[in-house]
Amino acid sequence: MRRHLPVLITLGVFIVGYLICLAQFPSFASTRVIGNLLTDNAFLGIVAVGMTFVILSGGIDLSVGSVIAFTGVFLAVAIERYGINPYLAFVLVLGLAALFGAGMGLLIHAFEIPAFIVTLAGMFLARGLCFVLTTDSIPINAEAYGQITDIAFPLPGGGRLTFVAIAMLLVVACGVVLAHFTRFGANVYALGGNRASAQLMGVPVGKTTIRIYMLSSFLAALAGIVFSFYTSAGYSLAATGVELDTIAAVVIGGTLLTGGSGTIIGTLVGVLIQGLIQTYITFEGTLSSWWTKIAIGALLFAFIVLQRGLSAASVRAR
Amino acid sequence: MQSFNERPDLLEINGLTKGFPGVQALDHVHFTLRAGEIHGLLGENGAGKSTLIKVLTGVFKRDAGSIRLDGQEIEARDPAHALSLGIGTVYQEVNLLPNLSVAENLFIGRQPHRFGLVRTGEMRRRSAELLSTYGLSINVADPLGSFSVAVQQIVAIARAVDLSAKVLILDEPTASLDANEVETLFRILNELKARGIGIVFVTHFLDQVYAVCDRITVLRNGRLVGSRPTAELPRIELVSMMLGRELAAEALHRNQRPAVTGDPVVAFKDYGKRRLVEPFDLAVRPGEVVGLAGLLGSGRTETAKLVFGIERAETGQAYVDGKPVRIASARDASRLRFGFTPEDRKTEGIVAELSIRENIILALQAQRGWLHQLPRRKQDEIANRFIKLLDIRTPDAEKPIGLLSGGNQQKALLARWLATEPRFLILDEPTRGIDVGAHAEIIRLIERLCEDGLALLVISSELEEIASYSDRVIVLRDRKHVRELSGAEVNADTIMTTIASHQ
């Protein structure tokens, strides 16, 4: 029970928040709002799943925002300037990102450099590469984009479950299976618990580290593809600070920043809480959108204090 | 059943040698372990026990020698590899993952799976089954960290044995367990022994050695002292093997000094802390040297830490000049004008980068508070006075202390506390790692301090040394103050027999 407490608290916060929104704006019950909540936060949800694995293992990935921007720019340049088939471009950029992540994982493991430093370097590198490709915002006019954004399941009540929302939910589902029902998942938790012990127990530390960062960059690129559906453009300065939103979502979702404890489902709820606050502020109309940041900041603070309290309590209980 | 001596050797170590810069940690060590035996591995500090285990489990590479398991030459690359070869190790600090479930800890890396997915139910069922053979019925889905150290240790043993361990090494497994937990552990060890597993048991508790071990091997200074069946090794001989000292035909008495009389400057009544030291009474008078003797891990250093407030006592009362006082931290002790030079000079004592002067004034300055900076002139005066007084060999007071020899560092540490004009000084192993000449000087210094009316509590592993300067000696065994020797009883032989005696 105690183990599930953080995620239950997160869920409680979401439900209370939703009820408050509902009391003030009855249209929050409509499937349209819910559908949009999922669609608008799909890219954040996808990248947050990867970030959850990274943080669970005791690491951090600061490069994801830049990778999202790079993905957009790469797609725009590849599709519009070089006339590459959009689907081929997707595969190419996903492969590139996976290589990029694997490289970071390799550096972290082989040279025992803190993940913070390596991914900070990765962040600058990926952002810099965007500007090497182009300094302009390039619109993407490919037909495939229109086709993909049109795919949606109508929900009763006028809402739409869009393709990107479905993609996000699928990624979350895969994340849950990967984290809780595979050896890889157990190894990730093991690394976050105690790296030295994990190594003593025969966990393949190097292989697991590389795969974790590979997964994170891969999902960041996938999020970048989704992001490019929203904007239909590639722009070098897009998605700045997204890495921090992502980390906030993961922590609010009940994952311990020091690693070893947390859930993917919690992260999804964390993302939805952020989306909920954003939607509320849009509905409210008079508040500046910066209030989102303030609310997130307060929540984040509360959750970190809560985690400290819980872990102190569990030490005492022993 | 085969008789004990006919059983084949399971593990055979021959001429094992391992050196570190400046130290020969293992020097041609020979060790054998039979299947179905519990083998005690004993030795004092620096004996080479840890190095032996680390070479065996692949943490260190050996310089020379051979290790055979079941007649096959082996060389472990790392502990995981050693485990796969059949050598499992369980440390005092359990090296498992507290955030994972018990079942995951038992099966990580070899979880039962189907289509790439772990079969959690199957894993839990098998874990519960496995632990039930150890008489442990717990919810294996709970995180390991929610259980006591004793349970975690049993899980660690179960894991090691289940991973086909033929040899199980237990490195001080009982240090943080209570009596009932120790009993459970021993029952399990005896069951494993009956299953033909060879167990290496490292401990400092002599009673426990005699309770479970079939044979005992003693190391000292990286060399093998001897390997003997427990039944043929009386305690006194075991202790003399560990300490490297024969019973002298003629007991050496110290120069008789009149017994120190007067009221104690510090006294402790019924002072103790669970799992650290059992409650003890202790009183030291001005001008008196009280020695603490015992084997490593017997509670000597623990007593000193308790008295100086580094560890907080759970029971009893401390008195200074007959008045009750509270010592809840080292700051409290320092304010009461207590001083303490720790055992590990390098990590707990000196600040190697700072100058001799800065090291000497450190405690005095800390007492004054950092806002009341000692004037530089005063600092120089204090430093130079002690350099002269204690004969610290250095060109000047500004040399970084790390560049001095061990003996001179020790003197500077003494000076640090003497500068605070203490009434009670605790010295933990003041002569360790110091060359012979400096050794004698430190001892003379101790005697001089005591003539000046200081109350001293000195810990030492050197029995001759402790007998030479102590007015009284308190002997510790298994975390207990067992006997106080005074007058003519203060000699190395009596100390040794007391350490080795049963009750």
Beta strands of chain B, count:
22
Give the DSSP E fraction of chain B (strand runs of 2 or more residues).
25-35%
Number of DSSP E strands of chain A: 4
How much helical structure, as a percent, in the residues of chain B?
Answer: 25-40%
Write down the CATH topology of chain A. ABC transporter involved in vitamin B12 uptake, BtuC
- What is the residue-averaged pLDDT of chain B? 85
Q: Going across the major beta sheet of chain B, what is the strand order?
A: 6-9-10-3-11-12
Portion in strands of chain A: under 5%
The helix count of chain B comes to: 17
| CATH top-level class of chain A | Mainly Alpha
List low-confidence stretches of chain A: none
Distance between the termini of chain B: 35 Å
Q: What is the N-to-C succession of helices and strands of chain A?
A: HHHHHHEHEEHHHHEHHH
Main sheet: strands, sense, barrel of chain B: 6 strands, mixed
Can you tell me the overall shape of chain B?
globular
Largest sheet of chain A: 2 strands, antiparallel
Rg from Cα of chain B: 26 Å
Query: How does the overall form of chain A come out from the CA principal axes?
Result: globular
Overall pLDDT level of chain A: 91
Going across the biggest sheet of chain A, name each strand in turn: 1-4
